[in-house]
TrEMBL record:
Annotated Pfam families: APH (PF01636)
Record protein name field: Phosphotransferase
InterPro entries to which the protein is assigned, alphabetical: AGP_Transferase, Aminoglycoside_PTrfase, Kinase-like_dom_sf
Annotated Aminoglycoside phosphotransferase domain residues: 20-205
Top-rank taxon, per record: Bacteria
Organism for this UniProt entry: Nocardiopsis alba
Amino acid sequence: MDEVEVVVAHSERATLRVGDVFLKVDADQARMDAEVEVMSLAPVPTPEILWREPPALAIAALPGTTLGRLGGPSTGSPAAWAAAGATIRELHEAPLPSRQGRAGQDIAALKAELDRECELLVSGGLLPSDLVNRNREVAEAALRPWNPAFTHGDLQITHVFLEDDEVTGVIDWSEAGRGDALYDVATFTLGHKERLDDLLAGYGTDVDLDVIRAWWSVRSLLVTRWLAEHGFDPFAPGCEVDVLKARM
């Protein structure tokens, strides 16, 4: 019998793997409903839904591998990165879903959240003030009006699978909806800035690089404390804190 592998688990949700089946357990039924709906709308490959029995969702494993992980080496050929970029562009140019996603947060609300988080990072002694303040300055470039796109909202490098330089599927759609396209581009290349040009070869170069760099700072500032409090290590080499240090 296959072993049960805990892929990720925290107080909000957990993902388990048994053989070729992933079992997602989510305490928020509305979030699971939204994930299933947006997967049906996405114009890019998504995993097959095997069955659904709240609070669980079973999906089939995808063939292929990812292009790396945050904190680890980036893998794959330039052609594979370009293929990922082309798939992301296809998503962003699709008809808009009705739901607002994580990448579509109101600018004023995002500014307020970012300022609160920066204060907590410093007051709690997690990060030095000069590091936080510098990245808050860089982050400002992302806090501008944007044209809505169909976004994934949590497009980590581990959420896109490829085989023979072709995308076989994109997973974890719980944060998807209308949002800023460059948020997705920045999330996918977080910690792998050396592969940004390869990605843009497929995505297109009509992007503002300062905004992508700004989103690297925004995402790292917003998640560092949460990760540290939930058993993850944002201080590991190549992870969020190193991303912040690269802006100094």
